[in-house]
Amino acid sequence: MTTSQAVAVIVAAVLLFWGVGAYNRLMSLRNAMRAAFSQLDAQVRRRHDLIPHLAEAARTDPGTDTDVLDAAVAARHQAHAALDLARAHPGAPGPMVSLAMAEQVLEDACRRLQQAIDRQPALKGEPAVQAVRDDLLGAEGRLGFARQMFNDTVTAYNTAAQEFPTRVLSSLFGFREAALLPAPVDSGPRTV
Hints:
By secondary structure, this protein is mostly helical. The chain has a single domain (3-172), classed as Up-down Bundle (de novo design (two linked rop proteins)), CATH 1.20.1440. It is built from six helices and no strands. The chain has helices at 3-59, 66-88, 93-118, 121-124, 127-162, 166-172. 31% of the residues are buried.
């Protein structure tokens, strides 16, 4: 074997080992992103499960606006359908945008529901209503943490996939950019 052949074999071996290492790193980051989405999914589902309970607890007061209650439950169903789509494709831009939009609609509907409850003094002091509101507040805190963890793993994955020369491998093996899940925009005061 000549010196040039030996150098070519060494360069090929180095490139092969680098390629395997880069591929494994991207796979590890993608798996971490999916695991973080599973945690996010659990927290979003928990929040979604509490919305109908709050609406039903509020429905016991005849003075509560039923349109607000029905809108909150309908927004919950829409957000749950968007979550199902995102669960099938965690990090995919289309499903994540749909989930973010549905969560914004749900956030706005929940804010109106909370405000409707606050306008009913008898309902506001009801222990069952307050218990669900407390559970919802706790679920929203855990959801915020899970969303941040998911977004951090997405950022790490996207950064690794965009770095040169790993970018060549990421496009070759179909490692596409993942989308973040933004928090709903705060559109007004909310009382709990």
